[in-house]
Specification:
Blueprint lengths: L29 H4 L1 E6 L12 E3 L2 E8 L2 E5 L2 E5 L3 E5 L3 E8 L4 E7 L6 H5 L4 E4 L4 H16 L4 H28 L8 H13 L8 H8 L3 H12 L3 H18 L6 H7 L5 H12 L3 H9 L2
Antiparallel strand pairs: 1-8, 2-7, 3-6, 3-8, 4-5, 4-7, 6-9
Length: 297
């Protein structure tokens, strides 16, 4: 399975997260953890479509040409020119389709500021940008790219300020869109949805008991179900099942080659026959058939 979520031409990066500008030796680790890419053209020959992979960093992707169908933490997005997608760290993504003229700009970065995760949130955010916001985002990328080309210590702080400023700008743009749709007056539905999806996606083997989530959200199962159905079109149980199927696909594709019985146990699906029936009802094939299909790719 590919570990790099965005640039599949590179080997996986292994590094220690750095929240400070300089380490004890006087080095600047931030430049090793942040990445700014201008007008990137993905190599479709190296992308395994519909294969899930975990994105370890926060990522902001801005489409400049073409189209992209991408799934982030089980939410599907169709990106077109001037679409912007904010992907929180530790999201599970899959590329579903790319047009031949697909091109985008990207900045990826670890957590480097107190409260940054709360600012970004725990679910992906897509915004269809219009002027003057298109020009504003383009300017952010140009400035970050310029600073990355000359990696001075003071430029590290500048890039961090640019990233935080861009995130605040995107939040304001999104709030204006929500306000125009009358959604800001609802009693915290976005927060409930965001926290539920975060809990659902933070485990490699999702917990399948609805009460696990509602107890931590301090709401009733009916309330959670109503929020998810209204905002996503899917019930709580449908989200749990979809996440479980994704985890099953990952394990069936894993080179460690878990047995079907082991996967059934890890996913709390009961016996192997019950798991096989559950998997086939959602995918149209048994776990063994899916594994054989993946091995041929």
């Amino acid at each position: 399975m590919e570990k790099q979520a965005i640039n599949l031409n590179e080997e996986p990066r292994m590094y220690k997260r750095a929240n400070s500008i300089l380490d004890k030796k006087g080095n600047n680790p931030f430049f090793d953890t942040v990445k700014v890419i201008m007008d990137f053209i993905p190599d479709t020959k190296k992308i395994v479509f519909d294969r899930t992979q975990r994105n370890i960093d926060h990522t902001i992707m801005f489409m400049t040409e073409g189209t992209m169908d991408i799934e982030v933490s089980l939410i599907r997005f169709h990106l077109v020119k001037n679409s912007l997608l904010l992907i929180p760290a530790n999201s599970v993504i899959a590329f579903n389709a790319l047009s031949s003229d697909c091109k985008y700009r990207l900045v990826s970065f670890p957590t480097f500021a107190v409260g940054q995760n709360d600012l970004i949130g725990y679910e992906p955010l897509m915004i269809e940008l219009v002027q003057p916001h298109i020009t504003t985002i383009e300017n952010y990328f140009y400035l970050m790219d310029m600073l990355m080309q000359n990696k001075k210590t003071e430029h590290s702080r500048g890039i961090q300020h640019l990233i935080i400023s861009m995130i605040y700008h995107l939040i304001r743009v999104n709030e204006s869109i929500l306000q125009s749709k009358g959604l800001l007056e609802m009693p915290n539905p976005q927060k409930i949805k965001s926290e539920f999806l975060y809990m659902l996606n933070q485990h490699s083997c999702p917990i399948r008991t609805v009460s696990y989530y509602t107890d931590r959200l301090n709401i009733s199962p009916t309330h959670l179900n109503n929020v998810m159905k209204k905002l996503t079109g899917m019930t709580t149980s449908e989200w749990i099942n979809k996440t479980t199927i994704r985890a099953a696909r990952e394990m069936l594709s894993d080179p460690q080659n878990y047995t079907v019985a082991q996967i059934a146990e890890k996913l709390h699906c009961g016996s192997e026959p019950n798991f096989s029936k559950f998997f086939k009802s959602h995918t149209g094939e048994t776990p063994s058939e899916f594994r054989k299909h993946m091995q041929k790719q």
